[in-house]
UniProtKB/TrEMBL annotation:
This is DNA topoisomerase (ATP-hydrolyzing). GO terms for biological process: DNA topological change. The lineage of its organism: Bacteria, Candidatus Woeseibacteriota. Its EC number is 5.6.2.2. Its cofactor is Mg(2+). It comes from the Bacteria. It holds the Pfam family Toprim. The keyword Glycosyltransferase does not apply. It catalyses: ATP-dependent breakage, passage and rejoining of double-stranded DNA. PANTHER family: DNA GYRASE SUBUNIT B, MITOCHONDRIAL (PTHR45866:SF1), DNA GYRASE/TOPOISOMERASE SUBUNIT B (PTHR45866). Coiled coil: none annotated. Belongs to the type II topoisomerase GyrB family. It comes from Candidatus Woesebacteria bacterium RIFCSPHIGHO2_12_FULL_41_24. Residues 439-553 form the Toprim domain.
Length: 653
């Protein structure tokens, strides 16, 4: 057959769940650790949907020693009677895409699952998948292999249930016992032996417990006998209170709620004396990490409400606080110290998401609804709580002054030509490539290591920017100080995307930004300072997966004429055990400067041999709390952290 021949023979029809196994990323986003947890989330959210329907009061989640997961609820139980197709409704739900009770049948007014796709997708991606339905005082059972039923839906025996589920869960089909139990083991051929991360699962359950007030979550990790339970009556107000527990609040938690025939919305807000913003948004229990129309409506109304109050009370006056009405307040000023949760519930039929993984809400009508309720709620609160209003305005006006000072500082630098694209920092050894996708920049600790890196690099794709030492702690600094700090100014210029209100990630010059520091205490501190800078001021570099940590070797082991590099104590011991009969010498690297250019290239910069750790943020709330605790002004939380974790420190560095 000719290469360019294109006939009906080339047209494939994928039946049943074959499309899912063929292209899993289309349905769960990826087959990495995020995709793995997305599968668990889908099954959990099916149970949460039962709570939305007013039935389930508990959700149990267990991770088994073999890596499988069990999720149970005490909801109504999936129907098992015959569907019009002739198959059991349970089998239809678990084996057919876009089949379920969330398409207008009245079973679910609100749901967070993948619109009838979630359970069947997880089934397709599992090497073993078991569902037990408890309803009508009976237990029904069906087992699947990679999405294909191994048996017809049938009643199951008590002895079988005892093999699978903890007895304390009460899975046995007792009187009035209802619910659905799902046990699944994801296919190693697709997920390459990945395992569920206990911390991620706990965060998932904790967030849903906050969002669905009155629904209890029970977690058991059989791998290490860990057990947690989550139950909150306070809803998202409790979530905001929890997320600001290590900060100094300057207001109470501001909470308001509004609903009509199609949309229900809750918003909780609190300002603290920190510089960072933490805003989380949810739709029907799903964390919309990329925001959407509900977040846009909130931001528009927040700016308008606070600006209107400031003008009404005469708070913005040159003679009062140095900020003129002409200078105004912007949305950027409102972000500093803002902690908020925006939660929308609406009909599953009406929801419009940007993609299958539901990271961004697209419903245009939600923007106006949220904007209206936010403006109304804040107007009332600010009028009724003048002391809180004053503190919030003081905070925002201080942010506005810092923004204007930063702009003035940046303009001054621009006039000198230091921030122009044609005038890159003198310390930067740029790469020849102008394509960001193939360009990477190493941020290197110290001039000595910087010199070795410049000599050993691949000049075509690798740029080197040495730092003079420890940079400014940006957790405690306004933008005006940041742009004046020499090393940070050089870094901002080198990256090319700008900073603050003028930031434009489309102008980023490198799609790999690599922090390369010494393997000692100072190196760890510098890396933490840089991570703080990126998390607080260039978060999208992390979000897009552009930020990395280089992992230089800890040991150089010479055995005869052969040289080996070890990146951990265990790797060192393995090399020595493998060559137990040879004479050896070990050099413990204390700094990058101890390596010559060829060694630095071979161990840490050569794309073939190097080890890079990609920096990701799985839980923005927890990351915010950690940076506030480690790099903020409050000493007691940091002291407690050090005392608690001192035993894990590697004193050899």
């Amino acid at each position: 057959m000719a290469v360019n021949e294109y006939t009906a023979k080339q047209i494939q029809v994928l039946e049943g769940l074959e499309p899912v196994r063929k292209r899993p990323g289309m349905y769960i986003g990826s087959t990495d650790i995020r995709g793995l947890h997305e599968c668990l989330r889908e099954i959990i959210d099916n149970s949460v949907d039962e709570s939305f329907a007013g039935t389930a009061q508990n959700v149990w989640v267990q991770i088994k020693k073999d890596g499988s997961a069990i999720v149970r609820d005490d909801g109504r139980g999936i129907p098992v009677d015959k569907h019009s197709s002739g198959l059991s409704a349970l089998e239809i739900t678990m084996t057919k895409l876009h089949a379920g009770g969330k398409f207008g049948g009245g079973a679910y007014k609100v749901s967070g699952g993948l619109h009838g796709v979630g359970a069947s997708v997880v089934n397709a991606l599992s090497s073993n998948f078991v569902v037990v339905v408890l309803r009508d005082n009976k237990a029904y059972f069906q087992e699947y292999d990679k999405g294909k039923p191994k048996n017809a839906v049938k009643e199951t025996l008590q002895s079988q249930l005892d093999q699978w589920f903890p007895k304390e869960w009460g899975v046995a089909a007792g009187k009035n016992m209802t619910g659905t139990v799902t046990k699944f083991k994801l296919d190693d051929a697709i997920f390459k032996g990945l395992e569920f991360d206990k911390t991620k699962v706990k965060i998932l359950l904790r967030d849903r417990a906050y969002l669905v007030a009155g629904l209890a979550f029970h977690f058991i990790d059989e791998r290490d006998s860990d057990e947690e339970h989550y139950y909150f009556e306070g809803g998202i107000a409790s979530l905001v209170n929890h997320s600001t527990r290590d900060k100094n609040p300057i207001s109470d938690v501001i909470y308001f709620k509004k609903e009509d025939e199609t949309i229900s919305s809750e918003i909780a807000i609190r300002y603290t004396d920190t510089y960072a913003e933490v805003v989380k948004s949810f739709v029907n229990g799903i964390n919309t990490t990329d925001g959407g129309t509900h977040v846009t409506g909130f931001r528009i109304a927040l700016t308008r409400a606070i600006t209107d109050y400031a003008k009404k009370t005469g708070y913005i006056r040159e003679d009062k606080n140095g900020l003129s009405a002409q200078a105004g307040l912007t949305g950027e000023d409102m972000k500093e110290g803002l902690n908020a949760v925006i939660y929308i519930k609406m009909s599953s039929e009406s929801l419009q998401f940007e993609s299958q993984t539901k990271a961004k809400l697209n419903n245009p009508e939600v923007q106006g609804f949220v904007a209206s309720m936010t403006k109304e709620g804040l107007d009332i609160y600010l009028e009724e709580h003048p002391n809180d209003a004053r503190k919030i305005l003081d905070k925002i006006i201080l942010a506005a002054k810092a923004r204007l000072a930063a702009r003035a500082a940046k303009d001054a630098v621009l006039r000198k030509g230091a921030l122009e694209g044609s005038s890159l920092p003198g310390k930067l050894a740029d790469c020849q490539s102008t394509d960001p996708a193939f360009s990477e920049i190493y941020i290197v600790e110290g001039d000595s290591a910087g010199g070795s890196a410049k000599q050993g690099r691949d000049r075509k794709t690798q740029a080197i920017l040495p730092l003079g030492g420890k940079i400014l702690n940006t957790e405690r600094a306004h933008l005006d100080k940041i742009v004046k700090f020499e090393d940070l100014k050089d870094l901002i210029v080198a990256l090319g995307s700008g900073i603050g209100e003028s930031i434009n990630y489309d102008k980023l010059r490198y799609h790999k930004v690599i922090i390369m520091c010494d393997a000692d205490v100072d190196g760890a501190h510098i890396a933490t300072l840089l991570l703080t800078f990126f998390f607080r001021h260039m978060p999208d570099i992390i979000k897009h997966g552009y930020l990395y940590l280089a992992m230089p070797p800890l040991f150089k082991i010479t055995i005869g004429k052969n040289v080996y590099y070890a990146y951990s104590d265990d790797e060192r011991d393995t090399i020595l055990t493998t060559h137990a009969n040879g004479k050896f010498s070990i050099q413990r690297y204390k700094g990058l400067g101890e390596m010559n250019p060829s060694q630095l290239w071979e161990t840490t910069m050569d794309p073939v041999n190097r080890t890079l750790k990609q920096v990701t943020v799985e839980d923005a709330q927890e990351a915010d709390r950690t940076f506030t605790m480690l790099m903020g002004e409050e000493v007691p939380p940091r002291k407690r952290f050090i005392q608690t974790n001192a035993k894990f420190a590697n004193l050899d560095i």
